[in-house]
Inverse folding.
């Protein structure tokens, strides 16, 4: 294996370097989409103010700026930096880098070890770093897309600060592209016009990845200049072989598709439901919007006809967040097909509205005395809890008694359907409550 290389900033004006490299931040405020780190009270801002740079683990999604931030900190603190790949380097390479760092320290120069994908280091490799991090011979900056709680050994984790990078918002990616178009280090094309919908489309394709969005932008601009065409949504779709969908996530079409999706679920059409799900995903809809609709439908339209529907959808949300793209889409598909195919009942939804209506109509009716707790002797003496019948003292753990204020006696809000599991609930309630009129 080759020894770890010294990582230096190359000349950002070099035309052969990718746009994403040329636009790497030169100041802390150039870092995109991480105001919690680089703002006035951000932790990286405080490090600069104090002049002290601790060892850190950068945790965040791809393209969120972890590598660029490490390189920038080395420049700002005037430290030397070694970039070590966790995939290509072993213990031997780490020890060689440590010797170099110790020589630097003899010259009063501190060294940053930047370890990309540190989660790929096994425990032995991570352990080699421990004494040198603890002694301050090196400043460790590890970069990972995985939860460091599970991927970094405890002793090393306790000697570092975990810095969390967030997925970059679409608006920040659009702003980055606009700056890159006019910046001398970037495309340096102040006369270039790109419509907002094309920039939006590129940002959504990049899905929070700054490096990716600049790569996409550079390709589109090169194609447009070569073919002498204006940059449009259609051109972007043609270049990347992705069809452009009519879809505005804050406009009417967004709500139209969500409506079609929910109505397909409610109407027990799994084919229609999964079609609208795929339309939204391909158009760039965030899966959480789809999951929110599924969760709502599982309670509003399926309800107790199949109580498992809600469990399936909540599990799908957890599975999607754990797996990410593209595997997480399978969980969305499974939940969509389950909810659409499940027996339907809106009895829970109707019961909620009926009860809410009475609450608003009758106001704050007092709780009947027999339903009140009596934790003190005075409360017991005044009738709190009197004549309350403890259900478990009776056969079948049931005894018919009044649970309403007198004004609402005999009310029935919940009328279970005769579909799915709710048919069993209906029969059970009819068996218990002889005097209630369940339809």
């Amino acid at each position: 294996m080759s020894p770890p290389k010294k990582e230096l900033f190359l000349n950002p004006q070099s035309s052969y370097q990718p746009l994403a490299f040329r636009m790497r931040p030169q100041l802390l405020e150039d870092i995109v989409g991480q105001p919690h780190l680089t703002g006035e009270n951000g932790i990286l801002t405080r490090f600069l103010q104090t002049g002290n740079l601790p060892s850190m683990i950068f945790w965040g999604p791809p393209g969120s700026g972890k590598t660029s931030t490490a390189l920038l900190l080395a420049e700002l603190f005037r430290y030397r930096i070694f970039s070590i790949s966790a995939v290509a380097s072993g213990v031997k390479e780490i020890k060689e880098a440590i010797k170099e760092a110790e020589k630097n320290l003899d010259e009063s120069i501190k060294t940053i070890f930047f370890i990309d994908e540190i989660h790929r280091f096994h425990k032995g490799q991570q352990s080699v770093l421990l004494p040198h991090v603890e002694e301050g011979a090196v400043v460790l900056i590890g970069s990972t897309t995985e939860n460091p709680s599970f991927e970094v050994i405890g002793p090393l984790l306790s000697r570092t600060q975990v810095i969390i990078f967030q997925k970059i918002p679409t608006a920040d990616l659009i702003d980055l592209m606009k700056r890159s178009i006019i910046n001398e280090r970037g495309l340096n094309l102040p006369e270039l016009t790109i419509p907002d919908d094309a920039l939006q489309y590129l940002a959504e394709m990049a899905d929070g990845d700054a490096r990716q969005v600049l790569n996409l932008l550079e390709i589109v601009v090169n194609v447009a200049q070569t073919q002498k065409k204006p940059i449009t949504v259609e051109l972007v779709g043609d270049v990347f072989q992705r069809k452009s969908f009519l879809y505005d996530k804050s406009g009417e079409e967004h709500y139209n598709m969500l409506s079609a999706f929910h109505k397909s679920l409610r109407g027990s059409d799994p084919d229609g439901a999964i079609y609208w799900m795929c339309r939204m995903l391909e158009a760039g809809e965030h899966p959480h919007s789809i999951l929110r609709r599924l969760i709502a439908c599982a309670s509003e339209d399926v309800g107790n006809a199949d109580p498992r529907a809600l469990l399936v959808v909540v599990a799908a949300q957890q599975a999607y967040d754990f797996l990410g793209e593209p595997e997480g889409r399978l969980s969305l598909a499974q939940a969509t097909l389950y909810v659409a195919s499940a027996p339907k009942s809106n009895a829970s939804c109707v019961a909620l509205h009926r009860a809410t209506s009475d609450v608003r109509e009758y106001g704050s009716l007092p709780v009947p005395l027999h339903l009140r707790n009596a934790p003190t002797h005075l409360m017991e003496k005044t009738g709190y809890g009197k004549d309350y019948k403890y259900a478990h003292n009776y056969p079948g753990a049931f005894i018919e008694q009044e649970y309403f204020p007198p004004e609402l006696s005999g009310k029935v809000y919940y009328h279970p359907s005769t579909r799915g599991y709710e048919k069993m609930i209906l029969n059970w309630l009819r068996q218990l409550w002889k005097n209630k009129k369940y339809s």
Remarks:
- Strands lie at 5-6, 56-59, 80-85, 111-116, 139-144, 161-164.
